[in-house]
Amino acid sequence: MNWINSVVRPKIRSILRRKEMPENLWVKCPETGQMIYYKDLEANQFVVPGSNYHMRMSASARLKSLFDSGEFETLPTPEVPVDPLKFRDERRYTDRLKDAKSKTGLADAVLAGAGRLEGEAIVAAVQDFDFLGGSLGTAAGEAVITAMRTAVKRETPFILFAASGGARMQEGILSLMQMPRTTVAVQELREAHLPYIVVLTHPTTGGVTASYAMLGDIQIAEPGALIGFAGPRVIEQTIREQLPNGFQRAEYLYDHGMVDIVVHRHELRATLARLCHLLTHRHASRHAAVAEEMHGLAHHAGNSGNSGNSGNSLNSGNSGTVPDGKGQPALTDQRDHDALTGSIRDGANPPPPHNA
C-alpha cells in the first residue's frame, strides 16, 4: 500500500493534472469570437487578421511601434498629490491606483516620449485605457501638458494618441480643471507654429473629447473607434430615439466631417511621418526657392503698376502655393499635396464624394 500511495498515485495525478496555461496565451476577438495566438496578434500590431478589428495597445507598445527602431526617451512628469480628496467608494482611491500601476507598469494613464519618426524629431503622448479607463486626472493632465511644452521647447511636432473614458471622478473638480489647462498648452503649440496631430483610438469619450483630443490640427481616427462625449446608450435614453447604425464610430464621424482621416493601424506610422514632414516644411530648400520666386513675381508686378495682374501673376506662377502672410508658403507644392492626399487614399476610408 505504501508503494501505491507514494509512487503510483502521484504519477497518475501528474498525468491527469491539467497543465496551467498563461492567461494571455490566446486572445478572443470581441467582434467575431475568433481565437488568436497572442504572439501572432502582437506581430500584427494588435489587429485581428480575420476581422480587421483594432484591439487596444498598451502605451509602451504604441510608442515602440511609432518611433524609429522602437527607441524613445521617456519624459519625466512632475509629481502630484496622490489622493487630494481622500476619496473612497467601494474601495480606497489609493488602492485602485496601486492596482492600476501594478497592472500597467505606468505611473498614471499617460505615457510621454520623445524620439524620431523616419528621422524627424517628434514628441508623443499615449493614453493607456487599461489604467483606470485612461481617465484624465491631475497626473495625466500634467503628463500631457509637460509633453506639449517639451515639444514647444524642442520645436518638434506633437502627436497624441487619445483613449479615455473621460475625467477621473475620484479627483472631482481637480480633474475637470485639467480640461482648460491642457487647452492652454495646445494654444502654446499653436503660437509656436508647431503641428499638433491627434490619433483617436477606441474609445475616446467624455472630458478628453471635450478638450484637447478634438483640438488637433489634423484629426486621425483608427477604424471602428468609438468617439464622442456621452455614450450612445446615454444619448438614446436622453432623446428617446433610435440612433443610426455606426453612430459615433470613426467611419460615421468621417462621413460627417468630425475627423479628417480614418487610417488603418498598419498605415498609421507612414501617414504620421508624411504629415509631420509636410507640416514642418521639411523640404526647406524647395520652400525657399518658391518664396523667392513669389517675391520676384510680386516685385515685377509692382513695377508694372497693375495690381490686378500681380495677383494673376502670383497664381499663375505658383498654382499649388498659398502665402500665409509671413513671407513663407503655408501650403507646399503639388508633390507635397499628393503626399498628403496619398496618405488619405492609403487609409481605410474612401475619398469623400464630390457633392459632400
How does this model look, in words?
By secondary structure, this protein is an alpha/beta fold. It has two domains: 53-279, 2-enoyl-CoA Hydratase, Chain A, domain 1 (Alpha-Beta Complex), CATH 3.90.226; 284-331, no CATH class. 43% of the residues lie in helices and 13% in strands. It has 14 helices and nine strands. Strands 3-4-5-6-7-8-9 form a seven-stranded mixed sheet, with helices on both faces. Strands 1-2 form a two-stranded antiparallel sheet. α5 links the parallel β5 and β6. α5 (138-154) runs parallel beside α7, α11 (265-279) runs antiparallel to α14 and α12 runs antiparallel to α13. The longest helix is centred in the C-terminal third of the chain and has 21 residues, at 284-304. The N and C termini lie far apart (85 Å). 34% of the residues are buried.
